[in-house]
Write a structure and sequence with these properties.
- The structure is a single chain.
- The chain is elongated.
- It starts with 7 loop residues before the first helix and ends with a helix.
- It is 72% helix and 0% strand.
- The longest helix is centred in the middle third of the chain and has 24 residues.
- Helix 4 packs across helix 5, helix 4 runs parallel beside helix 7 and helix 7 packs across helix 8.
- It is mainly alpha-helical.
């Protein structure tokens, strides 16, 4: 691929995933990722802080969740606003073409403690983003925290179900079912 082609972050992510699968995370360098993507090391660092970040997409997901909560109808209850945010994530980030890559990404992350730690930190950031967005809607702090925590759990469950599935279910449908399951389980506690 020529260096001038668009979608450098996506190309770098695909190259990194391939190399992490082939050689392992620890045995892959930024230079190798950039070369596989047909880019330079400096291009890599324009988009990502380090090789760990290439699988995590920066703050894109947090922004989508916050936007989805903000765009929910004014009458939406906190959990409904979170559901609206998960629908937004499904439309914008989890397209059917990404399903296979998502399953591969999860396997690479599961195989490496450093990546599992980064995934956990990203989850905390997503929860904080949803909490802040709910508070901006006027939801009380504790209610915002609970709705965001449950929403983050539902997002995690939905992502796992969606990326492992072989059917054509839309991420938004899977996420709404995960929200229903989380809500039903919480009532049993």
């Amino acid at each position: 691929m020529a260096r001038w082609q668009p979608n450098a972050p996506e190309r770098l992510a695909v190259a990194a995933l391939e190399l992490f699968e082939e050689r392992g995370y620890e045995n892959t360098t930024v230079i190798e990722i950039a070369e596989r993507a047909g880019l330079t090391k400096s291009t890599f660092f324009r988009h990502f802080q380090d090789k760990r970040e290439v699988l995590f997409g920066g703050d894109t997901m947090a922004g989508l969740l916050a936007e989805g909560i903000a765009a929910a109808p004014a009458t939406a209850k906190p959990f409904e606003a979170v559901a609206h945010a998960l629908d937004t994530v499904g439309r914008e980030a989890f397209h059917p073409a990404r399903r296979a890559m998502s399953a591969r990404r999860r396997a690479v992350i599961a195989a490496n403690p450093e990546l599992r730690e980064r995934e956990a930190l990203k989850g905390l950031g997503l929860t904080a983003s949803m909490t802040d967005a709910l508070e901006r809607r006027g939801v009380p702090e504790l209610t915002s925290c609970v709705a965001a925590e449950l929403g983050a759990l539902a997002l995690k469950i939905a992502y796992e179900r969606w990326s492992d599935a072989t059917d054509g279910d839309d991420f938004g449908d899977v996420a709404r079912q995960a929200l229903r399951d989380v809500r039903a389980s919480s009532t049993l506690c």
